[in-house]
């Protein structure tokens, strides 16, 4: 009976971790699709919701997600938010987002967290995504 309980706890915990990861991955993909194809307002809302979901993840509790992975996703998300702010002519907001991107870049362990480098990485990823708009990093 005790063994069944232990197995049940481990299976349930693993299932919860997988569910949390699947939800976050889905939300990230959805936010990226909004960024690539929706209007700026919808894209910004989706990206902010994704950033919020990433911040709520309890890293030590989920063995499928690491600090570096979450920080890297946060970096890309904040660069995309900065791109939206720049397109809208709000350089102050863009600067706030780039600063957050650079903080997360450092947490991710990237060697070069300059604005130019994180922008170039984000653009390269966005242009090579299977569902990106042809010829654009928006």
Task: Itemize the secondary structure elements and their pairings.
Elements: H1 2-37, H2 40-56, H3 67-87, H4 91-108, H5 115-128
Structure, described:
The protein is mostly helical. It has one domain (2-128). 77% of the residues lie in helices and 0% in strands. The chain contains five helices and no strands. The protein has helices at 2-37, 40-56, 67-87, 91-108, 115-128. The longest helix has 36 residues, at 2-37. It is globular, with a radius of gyration of 17 Å.
Primary descriptors:
single chain; 138 residues; mainly alpha; disordered N terminus
Q: Whole-number radius of gyration? A: 17 Å
Structural category is mainly alpha
**First-to-last CA distance:** 57 Å
The number of helical runs is 5
Strand segment count: 0
- What pattern of helices and strands is seen along the backbone? HHHHH
Give a short account of the largest sheet. none
Low-pLDDT residue spans: 3-9
Helix content: over 70%
Average pLDDT rating: 83
Portion of residues in beta strands equals under 5%
Write down the overall geometry: globular
| Overall structural domain count | 1
């Amino acid at each position: 009976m005790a063994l069944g309980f232990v197995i049940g706890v481990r299976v349930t915990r693993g299932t919860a971790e997988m569910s949390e990861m699947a939800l976050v991955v889905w939300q990230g993909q959805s936010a990226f699709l909004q960024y690539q194809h929706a209007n700026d307002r919808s894209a910004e809302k989706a990206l902010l919701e994704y950033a919020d979901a990433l911040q709520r993840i309890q890293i030590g509790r989920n063995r499928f997600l690491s600090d570096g992975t979450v920080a890297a996703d946060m970096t890309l998300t904040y660069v995309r938010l900065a791109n939206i702010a720049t397109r809208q002519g709000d350089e102050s907001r863009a600067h706030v987002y780039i600063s957050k991107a650079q903080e997360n870049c450092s947490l991710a362990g990237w060697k070069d967290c300059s604005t130019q480098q994180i922008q170039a990485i984000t653009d390269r990823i966005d242009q090579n995504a299977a569902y990106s708009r042809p010829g654009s990093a928006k």
